[in-house]
Structure formats: C-alpha cells, structure tokens
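Field: sequence (string)
Field: structure_tokens (string)

Example rows 1 and 2, in order.
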Amino acid sequence: MGAELWRRSDARQQKTTAVAVDSRTAVLASLLAQGLRTRVMVSETPWGTGLYLLDHEGRPLRNWGDAPDHTKPPTLAVRVAIVPSDLDEPVDVYLDPVADTQVEYAGNEAHPVEDAAERLIRHYRPAFPRAEAAGR
C-alpha cells in the first residue's frame, strides 16, 4: 500500500490537491499509511510540513483541543507530526488524544523519521480498528 499524500488547499471549501513533499515527509507518510492502513494529509506550516492521519471516511482525526467540551462534536484536526524544514532537526511528534477512541494524550517528542513513525503508529493504532486487528 503506497502513501497517498493530500494537502488542504482551501480550508473553507475543503478541497484537496496532491502536493510534492521532501523525502523525509514522504518516508514518514508512507510508513504511517502502511502501518496504520490509512491515508495521510500534509499541510504547510511556518516550521515545516504538518502531517494528519485520515479516518476511514477520509477526514482528519479530531479532538476538542486544550479545553475539552464533550457536549459538542470535536472540531480540532489532530496534527500528529511536523517534519521541520531544517533537515538537521528531528521530527516533532504529537501524541494527542483522539475523540471517541482509547487514544489519550501522551506528550510531545522529537525523533528521527523511522523512530517517529514507530512511535506514532504505536500511539495512534487504537484509532484504526483495521490496523489494530492486523497488529495483534
């Protein structure tokens, strides 16, 4: 299963377009897509390229942000990593909670690409039932 990379081009209209990415981002996205049996969306940030995992309906995983209000639907897309523009910097890994799953907050870390993928897969696997079943 190859990585499918998508970038939000117009947040208001929710259009997506294919985007060229650097090799570290492509490797991380591919490892995540294969390890979690999902797709990955990327977005440009001031610090590098942000990665988001997409659910089975093609939407980014979501949560409620820093002030959870479980009476409302989760609206914040969960950015799972930033691959810095500076090639000497490690990948920033965000181990955030995911709404309606057993995935809970576990902090932020920095890792080389392959270690970042391994850590992210281990953390977010419960949000992907097909990957969870395959990982057993």
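Row 2 begins here:
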Amino acid sequence: MNLSAISSKSFGEPTWFIPAATIDAASVLDVPNKSTIAAAIGVSTIHSTVSPSVGVQANASPPKEVQSVRNYIAHRGKGAAARMSPLMSMHGASNVLQLLDSPVAGGIRLFESWVFDLLDMADFATR
C-alpha cells in the first residue's frame, strides 16, 4: 500500500480528518509511535467537555468539524454548505463567525473547544 491508496481521489492527498486514513498513512510511513498516534486519534472521535450545569457532554469529532468549516470557507460551494448545515443548526448559528463564537459546555466558545481538544490529542499522541 502507498499513500495514494488512502488519498482523496480528487486531490491525491491523504484524508487526514478520517481517523482510519491517518492511521493507515502512519502504517505506510512506518511511524515508530503509530499505536500512540492511533490511540490519540481515537480520542478525537469521542471527546467530551465538562460543564457544571450539564456535566460531561460527548461532542462530535473536532477534526471533522474543523475540516467542514475549512472546506466551507475555502470552497463556498453547495456541497460544502450542505455539510455545514447540521453543524450550524446544532449551534443556532446563521454564519461561520456566529458558529465559531457559539457557546459550548464549560463556558467556552466552539472554536476554543476545538483548540483544547486538538491540544489534548497532541499531548496524548506524544506520551
């Protein structure tokens, strides 16, 4: 297997936001800490925030959400907009700035939650 086998068909680059593709790429590249990276990526698919009023709340995958927002901003096509619609609705946002600034459990904004979750993933992957 080579990296092109796990790449996006249209652009020829790995689909890093899909956990299985990232783990496959680590295997192809023979990354020495592949199992640690795989565990950290697994954390990304089920992460949680803690709120005093709500308690522990499971959230969607931050890499997938970030990728959806990135594609919407970069491409502005109907497909990207359609993929953003559920995320926007879930947060009661009518535009991307409102989405990024929308409050989530724990008294932080959605964008901040992504940063914290991705930092947690990076920390976990480097242990």
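free_text_note (row 2): The helical segments are 19-28, 34-45, 62-75, 78-90, 96-100, 110-125.
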